[in-house]
Amino acid sequence: MLVTTPSGLRIWRLEPPAEPDALGGHASEAWAAAFSPDGKVLATGSDDTGERQTIKFWDPASGMPLTGWKGHTAMVAALVFSPDGRMLASGSLDSGQPCNPNLLLWDARSRARLAILPGHSGWVRAVVFSPDGRWLASAGDDSTARLWEVATRTARAVLTGHALRVTSLAFSPDGR
């Protein structure tokens, strides 16, 4: 559609593009960031929920975007690479219902979704891999922290007792 305004002509696209939008910066705030173990990729997650790319990879040396994809339908609040750099875990402000998963595992090379990790009933705000990559911990607004066995994609422990949401996690250097 062509619109004439006092400042000049404007073209409005009424149909979504057939191809993904050109890769650029996030249109909204980036709420999560994680470097790959080799430092060659920076992953960012954002509140670009109306756009096609809520997770983006960047070349830190040049500052240029590498790729992006729609990782969640709500804000991406947490990202972490596995220690070997092969996987990326993402947590979001999605509901956690089957149609809106809030904790996902991705293949970092192909960007293919490897697994939905169900269980959190609220927003997921923190994710971290153990130093050996065998475990993933997640936490969020349901006042729990969960420990996942990465190989089987199953929850091995649910840590309860917090009165409010859990917003941060860490493994000790030895992973215990």
Question: Would you write up a description of this structure?
Answer:
The protein has 176 residues and is mainly beta. It has a domain at 20-126: YVTN repeat-like/Quinoprotein amine dehydrogenase (Methylamine Dehydrogenase, Chain H), CATH 2.130.10.10. It contains no helices and 14 strands. The strands form four sheets. The protein has a four-stranded antiparallel β-sheet with strand order 3-4-5-6, with no helix packed on it. Strands 7-8-9-10 form a four-stranded antiparallel β-sheet, with no helix packed on it. A four-stranded antiparallel β-sheet has the order 11-12-13-14, with no helix packed on it. The N and C termini lie far apart (60 Å). 34% of the residues are buried. The model has no long low-confidence stretch (mean pLDDT 86).
Topology (SSEs and partners):
Layout: E1 2-5, E2 8-11, E3 30-35, E4 42-46, E5 55-59, E6 64-69, E7 76-81, E8 87-92, E9 103-107, E10 113-116, E11 124-129, E12 135-140, E13 145-149, E14 154-159
Antiparallel strand pairs: 1-2, 3-4, 4-5, 5-6, 7-8, 8-9, 9-10, 11-12, 12-13, 13-14
